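Course exercise 7: structure representation. Students receive a sequence record and must write out the corresponding structure in token form. The form below is the worked example handed out in class, using Osmotically inducible protein OsmC (143 residues). Read each field label carefully; the graders check that inputs and outputs are placed in the correct fields and that the protein name is recorded exactly as given.

STUDENT ID: A-19
EXERCISE PROTEIN: Osmotically inducible protein OsmC
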Amino acid sequence: MADRNATTSWTGDLGSGSGIVTLDSSNAGQFPVSFATRAEDPAGQTSPEELIAAAHSSCYSMQLSALLGGVGHAPERIDTSAEVTLGKSGDGFAITGIALTVRANVPGADADTFQQAAQQAKETCPVSAALSGTTITLDAQLA
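STUDENT ANSWER:
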């Protein structure tokens, strides 16, 4: 398997500083970040939490697709959103929860088969595993 990497260049203090995240492995672009955008209006900037949400929603969708395909139900479409919540924890901030919402069109799959695969994907997707110390909820439904 391949390693993936990104780089952040930060200037200034936490409150007024800002940075640029570069997706090095894929050369997919650069994204501005600042601390203010984590708790306020993002105004065209991203945050670590949004990047985690992107990673989680895409990883989960791929894992669910593999699991459903493995039992003979190739999905036609899977739409997954991940809402990552940043909150106060002790003396600082922490990711306090992630809510996955999944809507899928899976021809031939019954509700039980889909729910079993959806739950298994939540437990086995590599990003879910990496975030195992965080409460992750799942709302998965067939479209």
